[in-house]
Amino acid sequence: MSKKGFTLVELLVVIAIIGMLVGLLLPAVQQAREAARQMQCNNNLKQLGLASLNHESTAGILPSGGWWWYFTGDPDAGFGKEQMGGWHYCVLPFLEQNALFQLGADGDRFSSGSPQMENAKTRCETPLSSFLCPSRRTVKQYPTSGAVYPVNASRMTMGNKTDYVGNCGNGTGKLDGPTSVAAGKDLTLNKKWRDTHSASKGVIFSRSSITLGMVRDGTSNTYLCGEKYLMPEHYEYGNKDGQDNESAFIGADFDVMRASYEQPAQDRSNYNSSSSRFGSPHAGSFGMTLCDGSAQRISYSIDLEAHQNLSYRADGQVAQLPN
């Protein structure tokens, strides 16, 4: 008895059906993957919120925003206003990264030589998954500005990055100050500059020292931190974006904190380079952590006034999260 195989027409029909099924299935698979990535992103925000609250329980204040981009973290400076490094550095011990926090400790603040400077450089080059949105970037080093953090780190052209930023409210918490090594070492000058000029309405800003009691609009009605806006073409080359060109551990700058005077937006090519706004790569909404530690998804179409009220800790204009 002879065996009958498939005809060419039958094979083409089968291939066409398989192709149609794959075409129908692929978007669903992509949506499922993006949903998983967004869930991981929300979990990162939740962990940063819990770490910040544990910091407040330990130090009595929420993590400080540090001094400005010219500095990175110094383990000998402790927590609060005297810590030059930013809030990402301050929460390291509460993310089970105390060894990274302590790297280079030598009992000498503003140490200008090895090993502290080299250890600070190593820390700034160490990527952490909890700082990165999986829809945007993988866990690796990215190009930086090549700056020398002149007092407590060596020159670096590759470093860690963060996709999550502190809430500095109206934006005045990001200040440019004295930019020479000599001025940087002048602790009195830096204290005077920061304490005189910082009038931020947010919770994380230059030399901030905010307690939960100071969040008088309510911890469930005030932003703590959230996702930041970036242009997709800068994901891999952040050194081309002035608001994403430094390590996650620098002090107060729009690399590590954002303001609320711009409408939040989804990442978009060739649109608003070097923006100081909140945003994310996710469709429909961006993630924010509130001062009570909860992580929330918020629509990009949120009313700008409501967005600003949620970013101010004590303006008396209590805003509710939109449904």
Can you characterise this structure?
The protein is α/β, with parallel strands linked by helices and 323 residues long. The protein has one domain. The chain has helices at residues 8-59, 87-90, 98-102, 116-124, 181-185, 187-197, 304-311; strands spanning 142-143, 158-159, 164-167, 223-227, 257-258, 265-266, 279-280, 285-290, 295-299. It has a five-stranded mixed sheet. β8 (285-290) and β9 form a beta hairpin. The longest helix has 52 residues, at 8-59. The N and C termini lie far apart (70 Å).
Instruction: Characterize the biggest β-sheet.
Output: 5 strands, mixed
Q: H/E element string?
A: HHHHEEEHHEEEEEEH
Rg from Cα: 23 Å
From the spread of the alpha carbons, the general shape counts as: globular
Q: Show unreliable segments.
A: none
Which structural class is indicated by helix and strand composition? alpha/beta
Distance between the termini: 70 Å
Mean pLDDT: 86
So what's the oligomer here?
Answer: single chain
